[in-house]
Amino acid sequence: MEVIMNLVGLMITASLVNNVVLSQFLGLCPFLGVSKKTDTALGMGGACIFVITLASLVCSIIYKFILAPLDLSYLRTIVFILVIAMLVQFVEMILKKYIVSLYQALGVYLPLITTNCAVLGVAINNVTDGYTILESTVTGFATAIGFTIAIVILAGLREKMEYNDIPIPFKGMPLVLLTSGLMAIAFTGFSALK
Amino acid sequence: MSTEAKKGALGFRADTPGERFFNGLIAENPTLVLMIGMCPTLAVTSSAINGLGMGLATTFVLALSNAVISALRKTIPGTVRIPSFIVVIASFVTLVELLMKAYVPALNQALGVYIPLIVVNCIIFGRAEAYASKHGIVPSFFDGIGMGLGFTCAITVIGLIREFVGAGTAFDVQILGEGTVVPGPVGAFLSGYQPISIFIQQAGAFFVLAFLIAIMNKIKANLASKGKDTSKFGQGCCSSSEEKAADKILEDKKAGKEAE
């Protein structure tokens, strides 16, 4: 029972309280870039959930069974970035071959994820916080859920604002950043959940 | 680069160390003009010291990885270019991480996960791909130094603005608000300032950057109306490549639907 409560707590913290984009600034590029329409935002979110969960699992297994016993934990940055880059390629190939429906839904977003700093950030944070393999995977999954929530809300807001009368210098990125700032203020409300 | 083959930025000869240095610092400032590498710009600028530390760490990685990649540019085959670059960059990031842990543990603590994340900073990869893999070792090294210092200056200033408005301090010295170091009546006047703490929180980073990009957009529009070359100016964020990809996905979907 205690284990489950602990995991639920981790999930709430990782998805809402420490939202990966709005409070940790990880994965900002896809957050700002792929948030024009809600359906692309959802696709990106789905692909992120898939990759970040898998990457957290694989990276924490590698850390636990290879890097930590050999006392090589200082190599984690190099190892993790290569593992993630490889993993994304591998996932793309597997999906293309065996799970075609999932590939059609998420495939186009996968190459965009290699450059997503949230994947590496979560993997490194899991190690720094000393999570077990199960905890790491759950944290990775919840973090990606938090990313999806944030990007879908932003995409919804951007769709509504598209035809508003905006001062010319603020058109485009500045307006998106201002909106994200307001969302960040709203998300600080979740810190009471801690 | 420039329209004439031999003339580089600011009237220097192209690809000399000096030209590369000032090109990165001013003409193609990565944060303010090219607008790449925005994640650390937002994340670590809650104070000027953090910005400075992050900037110098990035400069170190950028200069050395540029030099090494330039030295290896004829050895690395084109097909495995990207993984090789990643390994070189990640090695230098690990080096910086270990050095900072040993000599400036407090700063290392404050910057936390953003130090290893220098690996995925698009400035470093962008320079390796756009400059170092095509030019000699010395200009590449100075290109890294210039770009790195341009980044450092920009994020230190952003950090200073946020810190000054949000906490009333500059480089951790209390200037505005209670406990000011300024003596006499001026100090008494300054101590009445109430810090706007939203500026050192996460939301403040978004707001400051939004206004910064809006100002740069205005400058770009002014330059364009005077008929000057603005092709170097970024689209607004490092996410422009993502944005193009997303537009393409939307177009493909539309085309697919029409085909059905």
Tell me about this structure:
The complex is a heterodimer of chains A (194) and B (260). Chain A is an all-alpha fold. Chain A contains nine helices and no strands. Chain A has helices at 2-17, 28-33, 38-67, 76-98, 100-106, 110-113, 117-128, 133-161, 173-188. Chain A is globular, with a radius of gyration of 18 Å. Chain B is mostly helical. Helix content of chain B is 65%, strand content 2%. Chain B has eleven helices and two strands, in the order ααααααααββααα. Chain B has a two-stranded antiparallel ribbon. In chain B, a hairpin with a 2-residue loop joins strand 1 (169-170) and strand 2 (173-174). In chain B, helix 1 runs parallel beside helix 8 and helix 5 crosses helix 6. The radius of gyration of chain B is 21 Å and the shape is globular. Mean pLDDT of chain B is 82; it is low at 1-5. At the A-B interface, helix 2, helix 3, helix 4, helix 7 and helix 9 of A face helix 3, helix 5, helix 10 and helix 11 of B.
Task: Give a short synopsis of this structure.
The complex is a heterodimer of chains A (194) and B (260). Chain A contains nine helices and no strands.
| Low-confidence runs of chain B | 1-5
Structural class of chain A: mainly alpha
**Radius of gyration of chain A, taken over Cα atoms and rounded to an integer in Å:** 18 Å
Task: Estimate the strand proportion of chain A.
Answer: under 5%
Query: Which regions of chain A have little confidence, pLDDT < 50, spanning 5+ residues?
Result: none
| Largest β-sheet summary of chain A | none
Alpha carbon gap, first and last residue of chain A: 19 Å
Mean pLDDT score of chain B: 82
Largest sheet of chain B: 2 strands, antiparallel
Overall geometry of chain A: globular
Distance between the termini of chain B: 45 Å
Order of helices and strands of chain A: HHHHHHHHH
Helical element count of chain B? Answer: 11
Q: Taking strands numbered 1, 2, ... along the chain, how are they ordered across the largest sheet of chain B?
A: 1-2
Q: What gyration radius of chain B follows from the Cα positions, in whole Å?
A: 21 Å
> Helix count of chain A, per DSSP?
9
> What's the β-strand tally of chain A?
0
Structural class of chain B: mainly alpha
Structural domain count of chain B? 1
